[in-house]
Amino acid sequence: MRYDEMSKEALQEELSALKKQYHKMQTMDLHLDMSRGKPCIDQLDLSMGLMDVLDSSSDLTCDDGTDCRNYGQLTGIDEARELIGDMMENNPNDIIIYGNSSLNVMYDTVSRAYTHGIMGNTPWCKLDKVKFLCPVPGYDRHFAITEYFGIEMIPVPMNDHGPEMAIVEKLVAEDESIKGIWCVPKYSNPSGISYSDETVRRFARLKPAARDFRIFWDNAYGMHHLYDDRQDYLIEILAECKRAGNPDLVYKFASTSKITFPGSGIAALATSPNNMEDIKKQLRNQTIGHDKVNQLRHVRFFQDIHGMVEHMRKHADILRPKFEMVENTLAEELGDKGVGSWTTPLGGYFIGFESLPGCAKKIVARCKKAGVVMTPAGATWPYGKDPQDTSIRIAPTFPPLDDLREAAQLFCLCVKIVSVEKILADREA
Amino acid sequence: MRYDEMSKEALQEELSALKKQYHKMQTMDLHLDMSRGKPCIDQLDLSMGLMDVLDSSSDLTCDDGTDCRNYGQLTGIDEARELIGDMMENNPNDIIIYGNSSLNVMYDTVSRAYTHGIMGNTPWCKLDKVKFLCPVPGYDRHFAITEYFGIEMIPVPMNDHGPEMAIVEKLVAEDESIKGIWCVPKYSNPSGISYSDETVRRFARLKPAARDFRIFWDNAYGMHHLYDDRQDYLIEILAECKRAGNPDLVYKFASTSKITFPGSGIAALATSPNNMEDIKKQLRNQTIGHDKVNQLRHVRFFQDIHGMVEHMRKHADILRPKFEMVENTLAEELGDKGVGSWTTPLGGYFIGFESLPGCAKKIVARCKKAGVVMTPAGATWPYGKDPQDTSIRIAPTFPPLDDLREAAQLFCLCVKIVSVEKILADREA
To answer: Which end of chain A has the lower number of beta carbons within 10 A, N or C?
Structure first.
């Protein structure tokens, strides 16, 4: 029965029962973390073979004769560009292999635009105003980068097919100070939805007022399906932009952080030849080259894209039960209560939860007081300010399944308590 | 006999004989590279054990419980900060472990000052003028960074004890737009000299007009001695600055690029707690953390600083004969000719050569035409402009000893030819 259809007395009784359950759970001394998109130990164990593919008897020479142990190869070794090209669905020549972190690549990309401008345009630091569109809910670390550079962030609502494209199209066409948009197009952070074909097509056909407008396309979860038989497919954005006559519109990012080891994987950027030349002018001042031995290690470990796909199936086998358990718990506990909605993504690292207005912060605080850490409410919005206070990101990957069950139970309990309190308070008012 | 004491006829005869030798060497079809400070294959082989210290049965957990395979540890794992602390002679708490390239750390340090300023001071991008002092001859990649950011570079002459400190002191005290100075204080690039105690003491006592003036102290060759019994010692700059009451004056950089593998080592920055806090504010927007597995790999490989010292002795055993051979060749071929001077460093990667005025470019060009690539003449000066055209960097590390012998012979031959031509032309004029 929906809570908002219950009488005051019934709600008060329910609240009292819920609080008893809550206090009981508090005594369990939980210490669980559902705050970040971290792989769990079982997932990390999948990649321990990475440590075996190279040893002191290995030849660390590339096919083209490059000694991976020495300096050089600014854009990465050919073998890695080939593998990551297959992973990103891009031409290896359009790919730069970086260090261990795609976040770092995104930061550097914004920083370079800020200090030197994009393809001959005015550096952003010389402009009075620079703005970014931020589909919400979105990824807090994206927003942290643009906030750090003093870039004004304009929220754009997400729907089930991606950002509201009519709004995106209008804003970028009208306002020359809008220089970028943050996108997680597949198994989006945090909602888990993927952009529809229509959305991608419209992105490729944007007519921005700013010549240095770029789509920051963070395809972090391109390979991260939960199911073999049900998978989201995304139109490849660089190819679509090229077809649409907008070849330079996109910077596309990816990494193996959630494929092998976070922090010890390889990150990459794919973009048009023009953007590539522009980036290389800067990059050769920044470094002589990234870690080629680790690039080779990844290539030898996976052999090819099929090897990576098979590897990702093992990740899915670990993550699928976690997602399903959380989704089932949400359905069982909250399905008929009318106190929130959530997504059931086919991949990625997150489940998006939308509470009743004004409840997200209180739910997260209540979870914390009973030992379950969630991503701070508001984090999915620019400046940490979720105007309706509804968006909560659930990150089910890291805790072991049994812990996760308790965490999910506690989360639902907190949603119920805060929602009942809210409904009661609304009736008082 | 000195060339400048020889008659015109004798010089012409000598020139004709030298050119015959040169043409003979041209027929040898040499393809040798003395242009960059690259370790040779034998040196790289010394570190192949790095590939063995971790395998799939290894526990990749730190003493404090950090799983090196997962996200986190912005400033590096404790074990690596300890080891690199010993390497840099700094408190582990004052150290940030970065990715694979100290050049990248230096670039990012300049970039951060440019975009956000240092410790609350105006970002350099908002200033009309920013200048750096550049001791010359110096390192071309340093100069490339400051040039890329539009920072005006002011050359300061080097002597046998470091930069001319009277000039440095005067300039930084007078001009608030001078924000930094590039230093390679030990086994300097390219001259190989080390800063004297007096020089370091005076650096630590600088009274810059700019509150955001910083010494960029690139201690790239701190461990890179050629001899066991004769080594340069450098006063540790952070400690000296602290003693002098200027704790925040220095950013100090180092890496294992020329200890293990260039491109696959670990880089680090050491600085005061105030600077550290300032940097971390930015760093946490740029990355979640650097490659901890590679940090652990280095720690397990060396065990401790003694292990690293022993390892460096093996490098020295490979490099010493190369340096000595080049120095002996220079002495034999040029010692009595009065056509140049050179350094005989106790460590590092380079020998500095000073030709007669107006000869460096021609010498390097002549070497190239016979198959020996040197660092471009002028590269050791800001903007690639060596006003006297005298400075040549000799990088003897990469070629095998036999090749190096030929390269050194050819170099001396080119010095002689160009110098004789110059002396003859001067007499004509």
So the answer is: C
